[in-house]
Amino acid sequence: MAGRIEIRLAELGITLPAPAAPIANYVAFNITGKLVVISGQIPLRGGKIAYTGKVGAGVSVEDGVAAARLCFVNLVAQLKAAAGDLDRVARVVRLGGFIAAPAEFTQHAVVMNGASDLAVEVFGDAGRHARTTIGVPSLPGDAAVEVEGMFELA
């Protein structure tokens, strides 16, 4: 039987993918006490990077927002693997966003809202989180966005 968060995901039209395997020498997530720390997720869809390049130089801000949203979906897939049941999630503690962009780009926060807004849509008030958003010159696989997260379990 689907839990509250799984039902909410379905209402939003979101089907969680299989969690992506790490592509280097790290683990997808670590659990310590009540915290789950999830490694950065790129905008994978169907095993391929859906948004590549630099936001503000070939990738629109709107596509950057969509990429951040997809990154959060992939975070939730890892979170389900870590927690087993998404209803165990008490809070989205922190999100960290990395936006591949040219030096003159300044709308990083707008792009990262794709992930932040979805966190609140999925988890309600428990989805409100602290965050950091950083512009970077490049990301693995030429991904346009990468998002990492920290979550508290009940």
From TrEMBL:
This is RidA family protein. Gene3D superfamilies: RutC-like. Coiled coil: none annotated. It comes from the Bacteria. InterPro entries: Endoribo_LPSP/chorism_mut-like, RutC-like_sf. Residues 6-143 form the Endoribonuclease L-PSP/chorismate mutase-like domain.
